[in-house]
Amino acid sequence: MRIGRLAAVICWIIIAQRAWAGPPFTTDDPEAVEYHHWEIYVASQLEHDKAGWSGTSPHFEVNYGALPNLQLHLIAPVSFSAAAHGATNFGYGDTELGAKYRFFEETDQLPQMGVFPLVEIPSGSRERDLGSGHAQVFLPLWLQKHFGSWTTYGGGGYWINPGKNNHDWWFTGWVLQHEITPALTLGGEIFHETPGEKGGGSDTRLNFGGFYNFSDTYHLLFSAGHTIQGPSIFQGYLAFQITVGPQQQSERARN
Prior knowledge:
Number of helices: 2
Mean pLDDT: 90
Order of helices and strands: HEEEEEEEEEEEEEEH
Shape: globular
Number of strands: 14
């Protein structure tokens, strides 16, 4: 019965805006949260272009290892839009649901591989520029490989993007990061997006960031970047992350 309920939830997620993807980068990886472990983020993502500022302040992200190699995913955002020559709006944005499944483990020669379908539910107000106004679906394939203290991952996918002035589009990206110390990892990414609106243009961006581990439980994630092709766009990301697993829960109970 439990497996049946879980399968129903996963199917609804898959069938049921742009993803926030793999913190702190836009590109994601195939590595699912460990079984019965939690990742909880309090984060803010910003973007600036000629139209003004937009983003989240903050958004809340939760990832849970529901089964070995299977992660369930939720983002609940408090969004804002500050037009360059107009009003500033705050409110609840579009809700993101997803399920990441790693179907191939990493070997000495081959990378690990996984899929991470996402659904953007149009819960935000399109009239106030706090949502897309349409449900959107992202269907990606991700790969990852470790080389000592270096990790590289990436891939891409197809966005189903309905709407009168919209059309479907592609995302591709890749990340390279290095573990400087056990506490600090730094890296960079390059990604490309094809147009998602009629008459729109594609863009390519460079993004740099990393994360700092205060402990096994508490972490700080950050990144910032800019377009190198296409319209001038700045993006930034900052998050505080809490990771919790059965072992940590047992230790807290004993204390």
